[in-house]
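Something for you to look into today, if you have time. Could you write out one complete protein record for me, on any chain you like? The space below this message is yours for that.
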Amino acid sequence: MRQQLENLQRLKGRRYDEATQEEEEWEQTTRAAFIRGFGEGSHNVSNFNWARTAGVQTLHGISAQQRQSNFEQRIAKYETALRSSLNELQLSVPQQEIEGAYAAGNEFAFYLDLKGILAVAAKEVFVIDNYLNTEFFELYVQPIPPGVIVRILTDEVRGNLQAVATKYAGRGGFELRSSKEVHDRHVFVDGGGWIIGQSIKEAAHKKPTYMVEVATAMIPAMQSIYEAIWARAATVVKG
């Protein structure tokens, strides 16, 4: 369903008459996914079916302008139905408890825990880390759902990081900035925050590390520090 949500973004901004076949294929595939996932009589399927009828319908036919308006309204309603159902699934599936401490060589457990945090983001992800590489995008950024704003702050862009970030920026809602003021490793997701002992790239590889969730009361003050650095940082990639 996340893949269908991503595919839906390709229909935005299109002319209805040029996107008719692609929309029909998307609609059939997505409706089948809704039925398999929730059942024919579920409210999720009903909401999806209602989205199909968005806009103005009359027995006497409608203008091309109204058809375009109906198309745009359908896309918006489809997106709402998908996002609400994805949120429902996330709430109904129990999350694996995060270990918090990782012995040397236990990097796979760290990967699963951090990926799990990022993969359920709904609004925004803000990552601060000095030693990011292209593998970071493949392992951690790629699972972030479409439509989530992604910001990354680092001290120096090394290797092919900028090239990969530029390709990823094509999804929209992404920005990479650099600043020499950055030192620690932090991840902020939808109002939650975590401190990481080592750089994500090397976490638990040769040395033990930790990932500790920040107390809710401390997050605003902590994030504000990095928001200030972000405001002063140089933009490397934005899309």
